[in-house]
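We treat protein structure as text, and this decision shapes the records that our systems exchange. The tokens are whole numbers drawn from a learned vocabulary of local backbone shapes. One such record is reproduced below, unchanged from the form in which we store it:
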Amino acid sequence: MMDQKHLSGRAWAELLLLGVIWGASFVSIRIALDTVPVMTSVLHRVFWAMLALWLVVWIKGSKIPTDRRVWGAFLVMGLLNNAIPFSLMAWAQLHIETGLTSILNAATAIFGVLVAAVFFRDERLTLTRAVGVGLGFTGVTIAIGWQNFITFDLRNLAQLAIVAGTLSYALAGAWARATLADLSPIVAAAGMLTGSTMMILPLSLMTDGMPSFALPAETWLAIAYYALIATAGAYLLYYRVLAMAGAGNLMLVTLVIPPVAILLGSLLRDEALPPQAYLGFAVLAAGLLTLNRSARRD
């Protein structure tokens, strides 16, 4: 079951910092997409983050696994946690606002509860959790708009692509628990990014051609941010917060991300969201808080 711990001041501070880092990642990805094709932008994200984490593994002197089954698990993890969601969400950001992307991304926590209930006996779907999940999906539906589920223009497909990406994240969480729980988190993250780089590289070359390094400084700053800080650095911070706060409390980071992304999208991209997006986030937030309360009781 999700463990729940009392949050110290330091845990709160690092949880909020993680939310700010991930919230800012959405606008940095959108800035890079102005000059970099979708698959190349994803390649930059996983490749540079992979190098950064293997450097940390080397500095720490952690043991690198040699078992083929472990590396097979890394490939599946890289597909579910990086290749699929990163690609879907990067493409989607070409067609919808940064803030809306971050709101729909919050469905990851909702799908996570459902996937865990399906695959793990100790993660039963209690009444409180069911209410939280129901509120969460209602919020996502409101944010997208009821009518948009029966019309399929690019904007609506982009929103559905993000929801599909959040399901992939949730499946990745279950896969990690089932296959990588005994590994050092940093080694697991580095191995996962290696797997995703191996998959994204040929796809990027086929769809976009050789990556250009003659990019504007603004683009390189955006890539450096979302690859080194919001991916590699955020993984390191994520595991610190997980150890201090527990999985249940860590869910609260999802409430921090959208306000940061919405604010930066407004300031840097002059974006404005429809009123239904804010209402949807409010209902989704109520679902997340309900799930957090459930974790406290379990």
User: Anything to note?
Assistant: The chain has one domain: 9-297.
